[in-house]
Amino acid sequence: xxxxxxxxxxxxxxxxxxxxxxxxxxxxxxxxxxxxxxxxxxxxxxxxxxxxxxxxxxxxxxxxxxxxxxxxxxxxxxxxxxxxxxxxxxxxxxxxxxxxxxxxxxxxxxxxxxxxxxxxxxxxxxxxxxxxxx
Length: 134
Ligand code: ATP
Prior knowledge:
Layout: E1 4-9, E2 14-20, E3 22-27, E4 30-35, E5 41-44, E6 48-54, E7 57-64, E8 67-70, E9 74-78, E10 81-83, H1 90-105, H2 113-133
Parallel strand pairs: 1-9
Antiparallel strand pairs: 1-2, 3-4, 3-6, 5-8, 6-7, 7-10, 8-9
Helix pairs in contact: 1-2
The structure holds adenosine-5'-triphosphate.
């Protein structure tokens, strides 16, 4: 199966750069399975795990916001933050989930719902990626 270069980059660092067979991302307009020679395109991403397939092996990265740029030479995911399973502090993510759920449940609280929802999505993506590692 042919390969292409996948890079996952945040403002702080290059999280991932490898030749892969396929990457599956959750775009704002739906799920996108990208293989070599995909048509060039740029599209925004949801807060969700990115799934990478290489020689029958599956890897996951928790990607939080950002874009995927599909080019002729390579595919670049540019995100606010991105973590490999080994980078994720599982207990911190669970605490963040509980905090966000508590805020969303407390109707009397004058909270920013969108902000709490996004925090919840980030925590859920981290928990999912972290649990698949085990
Ligand atoms: P928290 O409320 O726990 O800070 P958050 O979703 O608000 O979570 P972000 O603002 O998305 O955190 O990220 C801030 C920095 O902390 C980023 O560098 C991100 O990669 C890192 N980070 C956040 N949560 C975790 C986690 N559970 N494990 C490892 N790194 C994390």
